[in-house]
């Protein structure tokens, strides 16, 4: 599982950091193809680790798909924030105002992600036993944590652009 999670998270980090991802994507766009592959890979990871019965699967997958669509919107906001930071970084034009604006957007995204997680748990509890609901939350959290670690590793600290 660790190898599959690492591969999937690397793919997502690459997609999130790719400017083409933030742009409108055509069906034959490599970034769109990669995104679709990532969705399939993630769904495979979840399916292999959830050990759902047929009845549980019937209730779980619609909840999963709805949550993934919501997370995708947060990912798009994150891409926009990263792109804005990259533009500021490359132009060496960081100011206190810009830094605080980006920080507030980051906190808003984190807050919205937490709200999505809080809303997800009752939905999971309606279709899964408690242990499996918790298991899915753990899997989702691990995958997102890996992506966030990889993004954090690639994004330079504010102020370092002046040293570049």
Which sequence of SSEs, written as H and E, runs from N to C? Answer: HHHHHH
Helix content: over 70%
Radius of gyration: 18 Å
How far apart are the termini? Answer: 38 Å
Shape: elongated
As for the number of domains, it is 1
Sheet/helix structural class: mainly alpha
How many helices in DSSP terms?
6
Unreliable stretches = 1-11, 13-27
Give a short account of the largest sheet. Answer: none
User: What is the average per-residue confidence, as pLDDT, rounded to a whole number?
Assistant: 82
Strand count: 0
Task: Please state roughly what percent of the residues sit in beta strands, choosing from under 5%, 5-15%, 15-25%, 25-35%, 35-45% or over 45%.
Answer: under 5%
Put the structure in a nutshell.
The chain is an all-alpha fold. It has helices spanning 2-17, 19-22, 30-50, 54-91, 96-127, 130-154.
Question: Keywords, please?
Answer:
6 helices, mainly alpha
Describe the structure.
By secondary structure, the protein is an all-alpha fold. It has one domain (2-162). It has 6 helices and no strands. Helix 1 (2-17) runs antiparallel to helix 3 (30-50) and helix 5 packs antiparallel against helix 6 (130-154). The longest helix has 38 residues, at 54-91. It is elongated, with a radius of gyration of 18 Å. The termini are far apart. Mean pLDDT is 82; it is low at 1-11 and 13-27.
């Amino acid at each position: 599982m660790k190898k599959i999670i690492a591969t999937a998270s690397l793919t997502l980090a690459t997609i999130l950091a790719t400017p083409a991802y933030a742009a409108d994507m055509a069906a034959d766009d490599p970034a769109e193809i990669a995104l679709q592959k990532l969705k399939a890979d993630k769904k495979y990871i979840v399916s292999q680790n959830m050990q759902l019965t047929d009845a549980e699967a019937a209730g779980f997958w619609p909840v999963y798909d709805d949550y993934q669509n919501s997370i995708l919107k947060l990912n798009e906001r994150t891409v926009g924030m990263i792109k804005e930071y990259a533009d500021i970084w490359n132009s060496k034009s960081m100011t206190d105002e810009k830094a605080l604006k980006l920080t507030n957007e980051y906190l808003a995204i984190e807050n919205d992600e937490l709200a999505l997680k809080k809303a997800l748990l009752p939905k999971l509890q309606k279709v899964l036993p408690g242990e499996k609901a918790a298991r899915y939350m753990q899997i989702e959290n691990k995958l997102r944590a890996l992506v966030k670690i990889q993004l954090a590793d690639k994004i330079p600290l504010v102020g370092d652009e002046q040293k570049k």
